[in-house]
Design a protein that fits this description.
Helix content is about 35%, strand content about 20%. The protein is of the alpha+beta class and about 350 residues long. The protein has a three-stranded mixed beta sheet with strand order 1-3-2. It has a three-stranded mixed beta sheet with strand order 5-4-6. A three-stranded antiparallel beta sheet has the order 9-11-10. Helix 5 crosses helix 7 (about 185-205) and helix 6 packs antiparallel against helix 7 (about 185-205).
Amino acid sequence: MRSSSHALPLGVLTALLLSQLCSGIKWLTLSNSPVALHINHTQHCKLLPNLVPAQTQLCRTHLEAMKTIFQAAREVKKTCQKTFADMRWNCSSIEIPVDNPKYRPDLDRGTREAAFVYALSTATIIHALARACSSGDLQKCGCAPTPSETPAPDHRWGGCGDNLLYGVPLGSKFVDSPMKLKRSHGNKLMHLHNSEVGRQALRKALVVKCKCHGVSGSCSIRTCWKGLQDLREIAMDLKSRYLSATKVVHRPMGPRKQLVPKDIDIRPVRDTELVYLHSSPDFCSKNDKLGSVGTQDRQCNKTSVGSDSCDLMCCGRGYNPYTEKLVERCHCKYHWCCYVTCKKCERTVERYVCK
């Protein structure tokens, strides 16, 4: 077998070939691969089987940004699972088993879960690129331009703002390219709409951040810039839109088909709302065809009245208690100068898991 100076390690190639079978939001499968550590030449871009031609071309022309894009794929997975940890659907759809490398059907169908993941994916990749610019990780971009509006009294524009002017076009092209290849149909319109909702949530998360200057911390002058909120806050905003998402149908409206609310089709779809085409299962029981892993053995909160309560999480099946020993730092004491010593204390807590 002929060797090449641009060849990737065998383990990386194996991971990529496995991920080739994946469906759904294919670029997110790159979160399972260490390939980001080895993408250092344009020839490597064609070895990424989950990318459509337009994404491969973006890889070639924005090679240095690929590491940021891979990191964004991992961040989507982590953030989604944290955001929905208290609900029956806990973003398990993004957890791809090694022996069955494909997304679960709930992300292949036009469900509200798919709507959330598409919106979060768009927001995350743009968030990562905009911050990479302001942190100096990318040579092709830098700080955001100085805001055009007049700053507040005793404020001045400075610092280094997160660069959405770079992040939005590149991130949007990368995420939306697979959908734009498809013929006009409901799923395509749904995903492109929800992708725009993700961009909208991100723009809303661009806030003024300031640093104080002055004698003895008087803060007589503030240097300010526009920076993005943490991704966790953006995800929670999208979660609230997920909970109030609108079910739509794809039907003729004038010369072409459009998405219109199923139950209130007298108004157009609002550009602030997530939309979905198909109802989701209740996620109570395991059903591979619907993409539900069920809630058996999920931890629940006995004292909660929310979605993580044992009654709702366990779908009325009941729950089993168990005890867990926790070792924590305690009796901490500050010593002059300047360190802290603590003891270790052990306590037993009661946990509950669904039957």
